[in-house]
């Protein structure tokens, strides 16, 4: 629910970017080799699974590309205000990267999924892969250099999208990196792509100690994971608020120093993944 309040916030970078509104399908599980073989033997055609048509905003740098790209996933109460998305788009395109912001809730008629009583979660991991496959189909995108970045619930989705031996094994395209801003850590953080977790020590919604616990459980299998904890930062620290607020019993407060440090980590992770 905290992103409802982010609609009133201004991000730290002021110059907005123009965007193209786009629509693309959420990914579906492809048929297994056995299903394909049986269908072939019977002379049948496997019909496509039903899918949700998602919405998003696509920001691209000037020029022909091909550009590396970032898929951005919103929090539990839906997409950011358009002006904030535009500002985020400007930051990424200034680096030479395209940005696709994904709206998982609007096309489904969902307002938020921040509490149990809001209803079951939607399959946002498939949304992330739908965005990946859509970007990979565009001629001005470098299909081999696409990363995923999420905030809060979106950060949890980003971690799930690169889970080792997870849903990514069903697809031919894969994320090159994952950046998770204040996720709720719930597993041993075995990942298939280099991953960075950025979280505040004072976060009482998605506590840093859960990520420390999971980092300690890591077996070393898979790609590297970096956990950066900002000592004086709370949940949603990277957005500006006029004053600290409370949302669903959780403290929300801006922290400019943590915001700048986290952005530097974000840029470093993307440059390492993209090679530019």
Plain-language structure description:
The protein is built from seven helices and ten strands. The protein is globular, with a radius of gyration of 19 Å. A hairpin with a 2-residue loop joins strand 9 (245-247) and strand 10 (250-252). Helix 4 (124-136) crosses helix 5 (153-161). It has one domain (2-274): Rossmann fold. The chain has an eight-stranded mixed beta sheet, with helices on both faces. The protein has a two-stranded antiparallel ribbon with strand order 9-10. The protein has 276 residues and is α/β, with parallel strands linked by helices. It has helices at residues 2-6, 33-42, 82-94, 124-136, 153-161, 208-217, 256-274; strands at residues 20-25, 53-59, 67-73, 98-103, 141-151, 178-181, 195-200, 225-230, 245-247, 250-252. The chain is 29% helix and 21% strand.
Rg, nearest Å: 19 Å
Q: If you average the pLDDT, what whole number results?
A: 89
How many domains make up the coordinates?
A: 1
Note the gap between the termini: 35 Å
Give the helix tally.
Answer: 7
Structural class of the secondary elements?
A: alpha/beta
Q: Helix content range of the residues, please?
A: 25-40%
Q: Give the full name of the CATH homologous superfamily.
A: Alpha/Beta hydrolase fold, catalytic domain
Q: Give the neighbour order of strands across the main sheet.
A: 1-2-4-3-5-6-7-8
- Please outline the major beta sheet: 8 strands, mixed
Identify the overall geometry: globular
Question: What is the CATH architecture assignment?
Answer: 3-Layer(aba) Sandwich
Count the E strands.
10
Order of helices and strands: HEHEEHEHEHEEHEEEH
CATH class: Alpha Beta
CATH topology: Rossmann fold
């Amino acid at each position: 629910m905290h992103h409802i309040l982010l609609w009133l916030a201004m991000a730290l970078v002021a110059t907005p970017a123009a965007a193209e509104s786009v629509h693309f399908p959420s990914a579906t599980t492809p048929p297994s080799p056995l299903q394909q073989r049986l269908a072939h033997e019977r002379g049948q055609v496997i019909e496509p699974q039903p899918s949700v048509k998602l919405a998003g905003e696509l920001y691209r740098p000037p020029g022909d590309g091909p550009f590396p790209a970032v898929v951005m996933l919103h929090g539990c109460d839906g997409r950011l205000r358009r002006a904030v998305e535009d500002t985020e788009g400007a930051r990424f395109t200034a680096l030479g990267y395209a940005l696709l912001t994904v709206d998982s809730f609007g096309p489904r008629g969902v307002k938020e999924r921040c509490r149990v009583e809001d209803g079951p979660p939607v399959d946002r991991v498939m949304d992330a892969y739908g965005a990946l496959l859509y970007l990979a189909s565009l001629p001005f995108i470098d299909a081999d250099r696409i990363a995923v970045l999420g905030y809060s619930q979106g950060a949890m989705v980003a971690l799930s999208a690169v889970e080792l031996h997870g849903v990514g094994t069903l697809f031919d395209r894969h994320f090159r990196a994952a950046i998770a801003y204040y996720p709720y850590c719930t597993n041993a953080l075995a990942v298939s792509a280099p991953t960075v977790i950025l979280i505040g020590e004072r976060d009482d919604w998605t506590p840093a100690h859960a990520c420390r616990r999971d980092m300690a459980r890591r077996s070393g299998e898979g790609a590297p994971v970096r956990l950066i904890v900002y000592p004086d930062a709370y949940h949603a620290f990277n957005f500006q608020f006029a004053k600290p607020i409370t949302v669903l019993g959780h403290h929300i407060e801006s922290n400019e120093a943590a915001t700048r440090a986290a952005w530097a980590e974000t840029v470093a992770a993307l440059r390492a993944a993209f090679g530019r």
